[in-house]
């Protein structure tokens, strides 16, 4: 298995640095089992700590060895995982995640993901948590071929939406993030703010399942999805740009509703690394090692 370096210190906002310090950093090749609601053979993340000169690092996991840091006290750790994504065929592929308290949020929140959109066939669902009563939210490709995000309130009939300012680039990995507060919604594409809309209303909370690739709102998605993150807070522009290429640090996991890396590479479970046990059940979607270029570079 190839390894993806995970930085646990030197945090800049919500995520850790991508590149280790060049002053005595040490990597530990230990693995840890992710928190899941079902048994899995997949390996997950490790967390390390270390401060001060010559501090010993420790890891959490099933085995684990110890090492020592350099003079800066900065530490790195690794997780055995392929660079991965799930491919959806626009027919009936999907991932289903049972609702939980960590997925039943109103505002503020930030949702981000890497997408490879292969083809546009009318409106299609990327992430969907809408109820039949009109509550909830959805990230989709609309009829015009724009990635868009919308929410509604069944009680008042109010609804709102925001979309990327232009169409997608077919078969190319792109990063999208939606930041929502009670006053406005923002959409970022590849780290650039492309749309802002006044909202002044909440997303209505519901307890329906969260679905990737399909749902009640639209047709099924044609392409691949990787690295889906839900933050129960507003990320700044700098946070969005930084977290595109960096994993969340241990301290920031408490601000996350869910975090799916898509690095398992096999099996029928999509593991949640936030600690909230939002394990997804994969139906039809297939594992692939095609993924955003920064993940491929880290895994090589």
Give an account of the 3D structure.
- With 300 residues, the protein is mostly beta strands.
- It has a domain at 85-290: Jelly Rolls, CATH 2.60.120.
- Helices cover 5% and strands 37% of the residues.
- Strands 7, 9, 14, 15, 16, 18, 19 and 22 form an 8-stranded antiparallel sheet that branches. It has an 8-stranded antiparallel sheet with strand order 13-12-11-10-17-8-21-20, with no helix packed on it.
- Strand 10 and strand 11 (136-141) form a beta hairpin.
- The longest helix has 7 residues, at 237-243.
Index terms:
single chain; 300 residues; mainly beta; Jelly Rolls; eight-stranded antiparallel β-sheet; globular; disordered N terminus
Q: Count of helical segments? A: 2
Tell me the strand percentage band.
35-45%
Unreliable segments of 5+ consecutive residues: 1-12, 17-81
Overall structural class, as computed from helix and strand content, comes to mainly beta
CATH topology of the domain at 85-290: Jelly Rolls
Instruction: Name the CATH class of the domain at 85-290.
Output: Mainly Beta
Percent helix: under 10%
Largest sheet: 8 strands, antiparallel
> What is the ordering of alpha helices and beta strands?
EEEEEEEEEEEEEEEEEEHEEEEH
Question: What value does the Rg take, in angstroms?
Answer: 19 Å
Strands, total number: 22
Assembly state (oligomeric): single chain
Bulk shape: globular
Which CATH architecture of the domain at 85-290 is right? Sandwich
The end-to-end span amounts to 10 Å
Mean pLDDT: 75
